[in-house]
Amino acid sequence: MNNLLNYIAGTWQEPSNGLWLDNPEPATGEIFSRIPDSGEQDIQMAVESAKKAFPIWSGMSVEERSRIMLNIAQGMKDAFDALAEAESKDQGKPLSLSRVMDIPRAIQNIEFFATEIIHFASESHGGKGVVNYTVHAPIGIVGCISPWNLPLYLFTWKIAPALATGNCVIAKPSELTPFTATLFAEICMKAGLPDGVLNIVHGSGLQAGSAIVAHPEITAISFTGGTVTGRHIASIAAPMFKKLSLELGGKNPSIIFADCDFEETVTQAVRSAFTNQGEICLCGSRILIEESLYEKFRDAFIEKVQQLKVGDPFEAGTNIGALVSKAHMEKVMSYIELAQEEGGTILCGGKIVSPEGRCKNGWFIEPTVIEGLNNSCRTNQEEIFGPVVTLQSFSNEEEALLLANGTRYGLAANVWTQHLGRAHRMANALEFGIVWVNCWLLRDLRTPFGGMKDSGVGREGGFEVLRFFTETKNVCVKF
Ligand code: NAD
Question: Which CATH architecture has domain 252-448?
C-alpha cells in the first residue's frame, strides 16, 4: 500500500491525528493508496511554515521566482509519463486523455504564469504636480482548493498564479484524486522551490478543507468545485472578509443551428458531451438543436456516440474511462432513472458497464443520450457531471436563448452556426462567462475564465487572476 504524505515546510509529514483515508482506483475499485485525513493541526503546521517562507519568497525578484517555476515545469516534462499514468490510475480517465490534455496543460499552467508575471505591470495616473502609482503586492498566505475531475490541471491552474505573485500557498487537492499533487510536490523539492512556499495538505473537504477556509491567517481562498460547497465556503469566508474566487458548477448548452458546418458540429458536440466521461465543468450537457436539423443531427450524433469505446483507461482506443467513485456512479445512474420518470426517452446508453478482465469491478457508465424532456425538469436543470446529455429542439434564435439561459448556471455555452451576425447576437445575449463559437474547449490562458450566476464569482486566467492574488494599493505623491 502506498501511503501518500503531506508536503509541509519542504518535508513529508504524516497526519497529526494518525488517521488515513483509502484511495481506490476507479477502473478496478481496488484501494491502491492511502492519504492523510488531515485536520486543523496539519493546516496550522502548514500555515507556520508558510509564514516563515513568505519574506523569502515575496522578497525575491520576479525573475528569480519565474526561474524556479520554469525549473518546476521542466521537472514535470521529465516526469511526463509518470504523471500521466498516475492521473489516469487515480481519476479513471483514459491515459490518452491525460497525455494530450491534463499533463500538457498542467505544464503549460506553470510555464504561462512563470512568464506572465514578468509582464505584469502596474498603473500610473499623472496629474498637475501629482503622480499616483498602483502597487500589486502579494497577499501573504493563500488557500487553493481543487476538485477531482481535472486533478493536476486545476491544481496548477490555481497554484501557479498564486506562487508567481509572491504568495505562499496552502493547497488541498481533492481527496478522490491526490496522486499527481504528491508527485508535483516531489518535483517542486527538486526544482529548488524554497521550503514552506507551497504546502500540500491532503484530506477531506469537511476537515482539511474547512480548516483552510476558516483559518484567520489564510486571507484569500481560491476554490473550484460544486456550487453547494462554494456557497458554504462563502458563508464562512465572506464574514472574515477574505478574498474569494469561486469556480463552480455548470449546465452548459451546445446550441446548434441548421446552418452549422454539419460534420464538424456533430464531431465537436460528441467531444463536448463526453470528454473525460462528461466530468468537465465545461461539457455541453444540454444539446439544443434547430428544429429543421433535429432528426438529421440526432441520428448522426447517436451513430457517433455508439462508436465510443468504454473501458480500461490504460487500453489504447478507450474513449470513455471510469467515473471517479462508486458514489458518483450511483449519483449519475440516479439521474438516468430520474430522466425516465420525468418522461425522457433513452436513445442510447443508460446502463452500467462491466468490462471484461481487470476492470470488471470498476465504475463505468455507457454514454447516454436522452430526448423528450422539457427545459425546466430536474434532469435539464441540475448538474449531472457524467456521460449523460439531453437533446431539445428550438424554432428560432429567441427560443434558443430562452432555453440556453433558462438555468441558474452560467459557466460556458457553445454555439454552432456559419452566420456571422447570428454568432455575435447569440454571444451578446448568452448569460455565460465563456462563449465558444464553432469550437469547444479552445483555451488561451490570457483570457478571463469563470462563470456567471450560480457558476461562480470572479475570473481566473490572464492578468485577472494576478490581480486576485495580489492586494492593490494606490500611492499618491505630490511634488
Ligand atoms: P466538491 O465541491 O465536492 O469538492 C471540491 C473540493 O472542495 C475538494 O477538494 C473537496 O475536498 C473540497 N471541499 C468539499 N467540502 C468542503 C468544505 N466544506 N470546505 C472546504 N473545502 C471543501 O466538488 P467536486 O465533486 O470535487 O468537483 C465537481 C464539481 O466541481 C462540479 O460541480 C464541477 O462543475 C465543479 N467544477 C467547476 C470548475 C470551474 O472551473 N467552474 C472546474 C472543475 C469542476
Answer: 3-Layer(aba) Sandwich (3.40)
